[in-house]
Amino acid sequence: TLDNGDVVNSDLSEAWGGAGSIAPNSDDTFQNLYLDLVRIESLASPQQVGDVVTARLLGSTPEHNQQPDDVQYQWQRSSDGVNWSDITTQGNEANYQLTSADETAGEVRVIATPIVGGSALTALVSAPM
Question: Is the overall model pTM greater than 0.85, yes or no?
Fold first, then answer.
C-alpha cells in the first residue's frame, strides 16, 4: 500500500506478460527476460570424432538473465551451411558426442528452444562449428 492508500500488486500479471506469465507480451517483454543466445562449447580445439560438445545458453545483455524452466535441444549437421538435417541419434540433449557423420558433413549446430511455464519461447540457433 502506498502512502496515498493505493494498493500495488507485487506479482506480475498474466496480462502484462512478465516473469511468471505463460504468454509473451505483444512487445516481447516476457521473452526479453530470458537468456537469448546459444553457443557450442568444447574442451578440445579443433574438435574431433568422439569429442563431446555442449550447448550453453547465454544472455546478450544484463537484462537477459533469467534461466528458462527447461530447454529442448536439436543438434543438426550440414555439408553446405544452408541445408541442415536433424541428428536423430543422441541429438536432443545439451551434450553431443561428435561422430564420423558430422566429420563427413563438415558443420554442426544446435537449436535450443527455451521453455517457460510450459510455453516454448523463440528457438535460438547457434553459429555452426
Answer: no
d(CA 19, CA 10): 12
Q: Give 89-129 pLDDT, tens digit per residue.
A: 888 999 999 999 999 999 999 999 988 888 888 888 999 99
* Distance of alpha carbon 65 from alpha carbon 58, whole angstroms: 8
- Residue with C-alpha cell 510455453? 119
Helix (H, G, I), strand (E, B) or coil at 53: strand
Torsions phi, psi for 125 (to 5 deg): -115, 125
Lookup: cell for 100: 564420423
Question: Checking DSSP bridges between strand 95-97 and strand 52-58, what pairing results, if any?
Answer: antiparallel
Over residues 34-58, mean pLDDT? 88
Distances from the Cα of 123 to the Cα of 16, 50, 93, 102, angstroms? 22, 27, 15, 22
